[in-house]
Design a protein that fits this description.
Elements: H1 3-7, E1 10-14, H2 19-30, E2 34-39, H3 42-56, E3 60-64, H4 72-80, E4 85-90, H5 106-134, E5 137-144, H6 155-175, E6 180-187, E7 190-191, H7 193-201, E8 211-212, H8 213-223, E9 229-231, H9 246-266
Parallel strand pairs: 1-2, 1-4, 2-3, 4-5, 5-6, 6-9, 7-8
Helix pairs in contact: 2-3, 2-8, 4-5, 5-6, 6-9
Bound molecules: NADP nicotinamide-adenine-dinucleotide phosphate.
């Protein structure tokens, strides 16, 4: 597959300054895509932009945007301008709070939902509209095993990731006939700077054998045409912690989407 032809010439990475976001940037630039890199911290974005420009000769734009703010979608759209975006990678999404629901101010959870749900959905909407017109493109949403069920201490995080799971499944069903691929990559514990910060704050060691950020990004790009779900470390037909395989969930999405299609056709 010619990746740049399917998903180029520009890719947006929301949450690109480190970890899996930076891994996506390096791998996409190596495939010849130009990049729009978004995160809050401008300095690591600029350093990454310089690195991939030098290494790959691609064009790179950076934008310092807090994706948890109400006007983030407009700012992302402004950063994209009239560039032809063929791939959206929505990577930002961890829960840095390590708190029970009532243990933090409500605004903390509202911000998390704003970033993981509203801004993610708005970016997907804007990207999908243009991609459907072009009949090609990809939307890759970085998820967590937390999407399959909640637990105390990560309540709002789990709920936001469950939204992403259902959203990705439905969007995959709607866009695939328009030539646009949608995948949510369900990650397990991954060695990112944010994960290391969280462990260090608690005086805990980084556990051995956790996923590598470069490997996670590589899997996401490889499996993008095979949505809607890829579970880290699991084959498509493997029943893992979710109690259901990606293949079984795909089958259900197709079956229910056929029913809604018939209902819409009669209306
Ligand atoms: N690491 C894990 O063990 C793990 C496990 C399962 C799932 N995941 C998922 O993997 C993805 C990446 O996680 P991560 O561990 O790298 O942590 P993360 O906090 O999601 O950070 C990833 C990137 O997002 C940016 N970011 C975070 N909040 C932002 C905001 N409000 N506005 C703009 N940019 C923002 C960060 O840059 P700035 O700080 O410069 O803004 C960073 O470049 C997330 O979706 C997470 O849910 C991670």
């Amino acid at each position: 597959m010619d990746f740049a032809r399917s998903y180029g010439p520009w890719a947006v990475i929301a949450g690109a300054s480190e970890g899996t976001g930076a891994s996506f940037a390096r791998q996409l630039a190596a495939k010849g895509l130009n990049l729009i890199l978004i995160a809050r911290r401008e300095a690591p974005l600029r350093a990454l932009a310089d690195e991939v420009r030098r290494a790959n000769g691609v064009e790179v734009v950076t934008a310092s945007i807090d994706l948890a703010t109400l006007d983030a979608p407009q700012k992302v759209a402004a950063a994209c301008g009239d560039r032809e975006v063929g791939l959206l990678v929505f990577n930002a999404g961890a829960d840095p709070n390590a708190s029970y629901f009532l243990g933090a101010k409500y605004s903390v959870w509202a911000d998390l939902v704003q970033r993981n749900v509203n801004t993610m959905m708005a970016c997907a909407y804007a990207s999908a509209e243009a991609m459907v017109k072009r009949k090609r493109g990809g939307i890759l949403l970085l998820n967590s095993g937390a999407c399959y069920g909640a637990a105390g201490g990560i309540t709002t995080y789990c709920a936001s990731k469950a939204f992403m799971l259902c959203f990705a499944e439905g969007l995959w069903a709607e866009l695939r006939e328009h030539g646009v691929d949608v995948l949510t990559l369900v990650m397990s514990t991954t060695d990112t700077p944010e994960f290391r910060r969280l462990m260090a704050e608690r005086g805990l060691p980084v556990p051995p054998g956790i996923a590598d950020a470069d490997a996670v990004a590589a899997l996401g790009l490889e499996r993008l045409p095979h949505g809607p779900i890829q579970n880290w470390g699991e084959a498509d037909d493997q029943i893992g912690m979710a109690g259901v395989s990606a293949a079984q969930r795909r089958e259900r999405v197709v079956m229910v989407s056929d029913i809604t299609k018939q209902m819409f056709a009669k209306a």
